Amino acid sequence: MQPPITPAITLDDFTKTIKQLRVQHIPSPEKAVYNAFKAVIENMPRAKPHLNLEQLGLLNYLEPLILSQASTVVEQTRKKTWEQHRENEKSFCIELSQQLFPTEMLQQLTPEQTQSLVAECMHDYFYEIALSNNQSRRNLAGREFGALLELLFCGVGITTQHKGTIREYDQERAINLVIPSSSHLSAEPTKTALISAKITLRESWQELIEEAKRFKSSKMYLATLDDKITKQTINLLQNANICIVTTPRNKAALCNYCRLSSANAAKILSFEEMLVEVKDLTKSYDYTRWDKTSFEHLRMFYGSVGDNDPRPLVSDFYKQQLKALQQQRPWVDPIIELWTSRVDGKI
User: Fold this and answer.
1) How far apart, in whole angstroms, are the C-alpha atoms of residue 103 and residue 301?
2) Which residues are in the Restriction endonuclease type II EcoRII C-terminal domain (predicted)?
């Protein structure tokens, strides 16, 4: 009797290989969303089709486009992100299969032996692949929506602190974005907004009502793509002054699904309407009246994103914000002065 045919790699080594190859084939959700966002924007009709996103300029082009077509950008970016993820996942799985079944090995097997080998791998090896892919998809879904909203705000000239730290509470909150930053929330809370990004609600919406009671920001928004929210949930959220934000397509589906009154329906905003509201809310701040700690935290935040964010559109925008901030209150600590010098290209 011939010994059983076994994979070309042990299970322990294969598990390590999965981690190594995933980094090579699957970009972070933030990078994946950024690439999809760029492709969507650059494929939209515009006056100068030969320019790419970085050349177009934020406020000269992106702002009017996003303010008028944010929902379309959201839908198309999410679609393209998922399509690209599937392609990346496929190339990832192909390379893993080559690790399991090298070509020279398969060439020596009969069809029956090949089938037996594949069946043998289903128990453990394929399970590890499926588990890794499932975790990756959850990671993508959990982070890509917040990253996409971050880009929308950036495109209309509004800074955001992704999962901004709210100092009064140590544990992680349900808030995905603090607008414009947690420093603004400390210094001028009535001119700030909090955004929770949830593709689907399920049960997690309940914690938002508690969050709304604790924070003193002017507005709290729940951005979602869920078109099956119950009427009871909508009423509870609206009674807690949490504004539901979605695409016009989803809003129409919700109104039909829940048979909402015109009053309830009017309180559900599109992404375009939310951006206009937030832009008006955050249009001016008196930085001369801020305490030193809040102001320096803000400048350090702008400087850190400008220096370290790998997305050119985002890093360039925050460098511009740091320059503008410096003009409003020019006295600085040495560390902040160093950041400003780097942005200005002096060092």
Assistant:
1) 51
2) 124-247
